[in-house]
Amino acid sequence: GDKAFAQFLTDEIQEEKKIQKHKSLPKVSGGWELEVHGTEAKLVRKIAGEKITVTFNINNSIPPSAEDDTQEGQKPDEQEPELTSTPNFVVEVIKDDTKQTLVLDCHYPEDEIGHEGEEESDIFTIREVSFQPTGESDWKDTNYTLNTDSLDWALYDHLMDFLADRGVDNTFADELIELSTALEHREYIKFLEDLKSFVKCQ
């Protein structure tokens, strides 16, 4: 059984490498530095007196696909739809002269992806906003967290503009999807390779 499994994995790895779009990870424009630790990626950008970091994790970042409703007339050998990774991402804005970090928790709403053509529609939304002490790895649950569900629209728009001024806009969000998808695919291939050597190891 293990032999067949290992053979299957070998074929699968070859297939995945064939469809791999990026041999190296795509860059995000706007002078962002990328750090990758396993499945977590961090983009860092410094602008006048501020450091902006965007952190995301590719685990569970591929939305469940609606595979059951295969279109009538679709040939079974047609390409599967491309998997796209749309991770939640956290933006931290750190000002040099304060001990506070503004943290904005953003995500891609599932129903928004792929609805191009709607003017001025943001492809990501801010879900929560809070202040956290700068430099502390553990965030405090006791700090007030603003949930944007019940937020005044004008305030929400200002927050979106605040992010856009720091380079976190639709273009960035598009490029982040591209980067995350490439990273996810790379990790998936690596996982298959690890699984193969694990299965073959007698």
Q: What is the distance, rounded to the nearest whole angstrom, between the alpha carbons of the first and last residues?
A: 13 Å
Biggest sheet strand line-up: 1-2-3-4-5-6-7
Q: How can the largest sheet be summarized?
A: 7 strands, antiparallel
Beta strand count: 7
Radius of gyration: 20 Å
Q: What structural class do helix, strand and pairing data support?
A: alpha+beta
SSE order in H/E notation?
HEEEEEEEHH
Which consecutive residue ranges, at least 5 long each, have pLDDT under 50? Answer: 67-78, 114-119
Tell me what portion of residues adopts beta-strand conformation.
15-25%
What sort of overall outline do the alpha carbons produce when their principal axes are compared? Answer: elongated
Give the oligomeric state: single chain
- Please, what is the average pLDDT? 86
Q: Based on the coordinates given, report the CATH architecture of the domain at 26-59 and 89-111 and 125-192.
A: Roll
Predict the CATH topology of the domain at 26-59 and 89-111 and 125-192: Mitochondrial Matrix Protein, Chain A
Which bin fits the share of residues in helices? Answer: 25-40%
Concise summary:
This protein has 202 residues and is of the alpha+beta class.
Overview of this structure, please?
- It is a single chain.
- With 202 residues, the protein is an alpha+beta fold.
- It has a domain at 26-59 and 89-111 and 125-192: Mitochondrial glycoprotein (Mitochondrial Matrix Protein, Chain A).
- Helices cover 31% and strands 24% of the residues.
- The protein has helices at 2-19, 153-165, 170-200; strands at 33-37, 40-47, 50-57, 89-95, 100-107, 125-133, 145-147.
- Strands 1-2-3-4-5-6-7 form a seven-stranded antiparallel beta sheet, with helices on one face.
- A hairpin with a 4-residue loop joins β4 and β5 (100-107).
- α1 runs antiparallel to α3.
- The longest helix is centred in the last third of the chain and has 31 residues, at 170-200.
- The radius of gyration is 20 Å and the shape is elongated.
- It starts with a helix and ends with a helix.
- Residues 67-78 and 114-119 have low confidence and may be disordered.
